[in-house]
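Cont'd.
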Amino acid sequence: MISLQNVGKVFNTRAGSSPVRALDDVTLSVAAGEIFGVIGPSGAGKSTLIRTVNLLERPDVGRVTVNGLNITDLSGAALRAARRGVGMIFQHFNLLSSRTAFDNVALPLELAKTPSTEIRRKVGALLELVGLDDKRDHYPAELSGGQKQRIGIARALATDPKVLLCDEATSALDPETTRAILRLLADINRRLNLTILLITHEMTVITELCRQVAVMERGRIIEQGKVLDVFAQPRARTTQALVKTATGGEPPETVTRNLLSRPEPGSGVMLRVVFRGDPADQPLISRLSRRFGVDMNLRHGRLDVIDNASFGVLTIEITGPSNGVQAATAFFQSHQLDVEVLGYVPANLRAVG
Amino acid sequence: MSPQIYALLADATIETLFMVGVSGLVATALGLPLGVALAITGRDDLLPCLLFNRTVGVVINATRSTPFIILMVAIIPFTRLVTGTSIGPLAAIVPLIVAATPFIARVVDAAIRNVDVGLIETATSMGASPKQIIMKVLLPEALPAIILGLTLAIVSLIGYSAMVGAVGGGGLGDLGIRYGYQRFQPEMMAATVAALIVLVQLVQSIGERAARRMDRRRST
């Protein structure tokens, strides 16, 4: 549905300073009905990337194809017509302060010269879709951030686009409102079979909404694929750092201090275990505990569900008979779980079972 | 005060209102499109046209930096060309228009440049043409600021109109000079000044109220 081929864009900044390579040979493809997320630190070129899709930013080189149409070839009226097939929502909502909620949603239809009876019918239905039909006569200044973004979404859908672009759409919202907006986007994706391309710097947006992800850094896509695959085995340093924020990061100092670098008689073990995909669905911990006669103490971590599979990193302390501890560690490793031994827990410090 | 003063004052007020009203309308009709044109032709604007933008900018600055009394005298040949005369209220309207048009153009330019660029981008992403962006986004969003600017322009026009006595334009300022100053009638001077103050006050508060009613940026 959306395809970028070898797209490049350079910004010439003020005379003297070197030009900024915002997009460097970016190739990416989003299938119809897909929710595709692009994540990366600020300044990575995400914003420039999403803006090439409706040619708010014209690439210097490369091709951008949307719904089979090579839009990099278009200009004037043909480009304006093509843009109507691509909705867009923004971080700061960009609603017209002089228009009511109703009239804001009506704007793209007015621009497309839609008859007013049709506008009234359509805007009513859209306001209902985003759950704001009671706010139709309110001005943006009278609405909360979440409500403004809902109006933004209704407006973006007014011309029945096949594609929705979300430019940091939840970055100005609190976590709870973010969740509600993400749910709405997922719902719209399902109901209208809308293709969604979003950019964000928030991992939660990717893990909660997207199926495909691309990680960007300094104008390049450094990693892309299914969300679970990319985040379970992050190769690039940037991706690893992102995953760390999503999985709760490193265990705190209080958990890792006093650990021994080598085992001694009676010591337990502190493991950092990455769960990805199915193994996390099994009652692994209690099964291990019973089978090897060891105690397992969860010290730190976080588990999420990505694309119907569990994903997360847990720091687990295993104590008990030393052969049991070894067997449990070996069991984790044999079950394709990524296991790292953080250290050994001295016998006198270990958790009492 | 004698009834004669009232009659003189009433006539002069009507003359002032006539001059300010006509020149204000014509200057708005000219200055508004000029201001829009200025606001969209800069380097990173909707329809960049630097030659136009710079040229008009220089002309506007030149006009605005010329004191009104000099401007009025300097353009007498032009005034005569347009109205056929260089004396009287009609002849006074021409320099008023020439002075107010660049003022209004600048005010409109500034008001439109204050509209969030994100809104222009949003409209562009919806497939809006430059004309639609001007009519449906820029002008409605800038309207409160434009109204305030026009108010300012009319207040300035009232001030300028007090000088057009120099070309026989009449009006309140002329009355004050001829009766109050040259004929030593301090009560006449006081009356014209008072009338001017009331007029400015009135225009200012009407303009502010209109702008406030149109401004939806704050919740009420």
